Amino acid sequence: MLSVEICKKLPHFLLDVQFEAEDEIIILFGPSGSGKTTILNSIAGIVQPDAGLIQLNGLVFFDRKAKPLPTRARRIGYLFQDYALFPHMTVEKNILYGVRNKRDHKKRALIEKLLDVLKISHLLPKYPHQISGGEKQRTALARALATEPELLLLDEPFSALDKDTRLQCQNELLELHRMWRIPVLLVTHDEEEAKKLGNRVLFLKQGKIR
Asked: Cross-referenced SUPFAM superfamilies, in alphabetical order (predicted)?
C-alpha cells in the first residue's frame, strides 16, 4: 500500500495532501498548476517536501526526520509526459535501460509479455525518431514496467496522442494493471479518461484535495 502525506510551499499556494492507494488506479485530476505533478515528483524523489511522510509497502521514501530514500531505491516506474526516451538508443535498449539481470529467463519472459500486450515487438531495432507518438508512449510504458516496479506514476501519458491511439493505449494500461496489480497514480486533465481509468479520482485545486 502507498501512503502519502505531503506538505510543500509552492510559489502561489501550499500543497497539503494526504491519501492512500491500494492496488488500484488513482487519478489526480484538476486544473494546471494545482500540484498534481509535484505530488508525483515528491513520491519519485525528484522533489523533496517540506514535511510529511511517504511510504510504500512499509518502505519509507520520505520522512523529514531522516535522509530521503534515493530515487533509484524506490522501486517506482515513472512515465513522463514527454516520454523521455533516449534518442541514441534503440527501442529495445530503451526498454532494457535500468533492468538488472537482462538475460535472466524470468525477466526475459516478463519483457516478452509486455511487448506482446503493447504490440511493439516489431519496433525493437528502431530509434525513437523512427516511431510514432503512440509507439513512443508504449515504449516508455514498457520501460517503466520492465524493472518490475511496485508503483507506477503516469504524468498525462496520453495527452499528445490522437483519439483512436489514446483509446488503444488506455485499454492497454487497464490490461497491464490487471496483470500487475500495483498502485498506479495517473495525472490527467481529461474527464472521460479519468472516469474510464480511475478506481478513484482525487480532485486537486490550489494544492488541496477537494
From this structure: P-loop containing nucleoside triphosphate hydrolases
Question: What are the φ/ψ torsions at residue 191 (nearest 5 degrees)?
Answer: -65, -40
Q: Which of 31-35, 41-45, 108-112 has the highest mean pLDDT?
A: 41-45
Strands 151-155 and 76-79: parallel
* Cell numbers that stand for 122 in this block: 516489431
Report pTM. Answer: 0.92
3-state SS, residue 50: coil
What is the pLDDT, as a whole number, of residue 108?
Answer: 84
Domains and CATH numbers, the chain: 2-209 (3.40.50.300)
Name the E strands within the chain: 2-9, 14-21, 25-29, 51-56, 59-63, 76-79, 151-155, 184-188, 200-205, 208-209
Residue 103 has pLDDT above 80, yes or no: no
- Provide the pairing of β-strand 184-188 with 151-155: parallel
pLDDT at residue 14, as a whole number: 96
Element (H, E) at 167: helix 163-180
